[in-house]
């Protein structure tokens, strides 16, 4: 019987722009080290379990989806699960048939903390993946010790791997990240325009990139460069 890919059956689609190459990190930073580690997790299987923590806008979802893209390009069977979006309508049976995967990325792990059935299902899945030599990458908004897990055995398992705390970008880094993302799109984003956007838009990186995508479409449609007057008109700033 042909297995239906979970990515399709769950309606979960990877963001095509979520790649390691466009995850901005300064040289020598913890974030750069984390990206290198996640590549190694796929390439060498030396790190079967990695736990990422970070606050809103730190790029956890980007990294998990980037890991999936990277693993998929290597021919691995992958699955990305954004638990905050799934936990309210999916069944715990979701975890029951994932043992065939080579690489599983669980986002927003805090969404199942305190939900006993979900915790037990994850505990069994964790053991299955570990025993079969598969890779598991998880992300949450806090350290596992701070999450309200009821199943202490699961909490213990989640502390076995490597843990990295992803650092949010400061304003200077956000500007550089925005300009790097613009270059990847073939756009020229000057320092003045990038600074203008940072001063007038929410500082959340996801929203900044979303507005950049909107500007890219408008620039292409009107054949205009990204100047402050044009940006002001398009975004009604």
Briefly say what this structure is.
The chain is built from 10 helices and 5 strands; from the N terminus they run ααβαβαβαβαβαααα. With 237 residues, it is of the alpha/beta class.
User: C-alpha Rg, in Å?
Assistant: 19 Å
Total strand segments? 5
Order of helices and strands: HHEHEHEHEHEHHHH
Mean pLDDT: 91
Note the beta-strand portion: 5-15%
Distance between the termini: 55 Å
User: Going across the major beta sheet, what is the strand order?
Assistant: 2-3-4-1-5
- The secondary-structure class comes to alpha/beta
Within CATH, the superfamily of the largest domain carries the name P-loop containing nucleotide triphosphate hydrolases
CATH-derived topology of the largest domain: Rossmann fold
CATH class of the largest domain: Alpha Beta
Q: Identify the CATH architecture of the largest domain.
A: 3-Layer(aba) Sandwich
Measured as a percent range, the helix fraction is 40-55%
Q: How many structurally independent domains?
A: 2
- Low-pLDDT stretches: 1-8
Which sheet architecture does the biggest sheet show?
A: 5 strands, parallel
Give the overall shape, derived from the CA principal axes. Answer: elongated
Give short descriptive properties of this protein:
single chain, 237 residues, alpha/beta, Rossmann fold, Helicase, Ruva Protein, domain 3, 10 helices
């Amino acid at each position: 019987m042909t297995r239906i890919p979970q990515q399709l059956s769950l309606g979960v689609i990877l963001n095509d722009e979520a790649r390691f190459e466009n995850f901005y990190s300064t040289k020598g930073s913890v974030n750069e080290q984390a990206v290198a580690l996640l590549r190694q997790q796929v390439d060498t299987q030396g790190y079967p379990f990695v736990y990422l923590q970070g606050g809103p806008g730190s790029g956890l979802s980007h990294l998990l989806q980037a890991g999936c893209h990277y693993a998929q390009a290597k021919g691995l069977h992958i699955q990305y699960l954004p638990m905050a979006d799934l936990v309210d309508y999916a069944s715990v049976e979701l975890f029951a048939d994932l043992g065939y995967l080579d690489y599983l990325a669980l986002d927003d792990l805090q969404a199942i903390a305190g939900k006993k059935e979900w915790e037990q299902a994850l505990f069994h899945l964790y053991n299955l993946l570990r025993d079969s030599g598969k890779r598991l990458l998880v992300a949450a908004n806090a350290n596992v010790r701070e999450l309200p897990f009821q199943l202490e055995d699961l909490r213990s398992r989640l502390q076995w791997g490597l843990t990295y705390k992803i650092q949010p970008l400061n304003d200077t880094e956000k500007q550089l990240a925005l300009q790097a993302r613009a270059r990847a799109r073939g756009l020229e984003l000057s320092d003045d325009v990038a600074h203008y956007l940072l001063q007038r838009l929410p500082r959340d990186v996801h929203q900044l990139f979303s507005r950049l995508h909107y500007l890219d479409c408008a620039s292409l449609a009107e054949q205009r460069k990204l100047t402050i007057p044009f940006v002001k008109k398009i975004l009604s700033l």
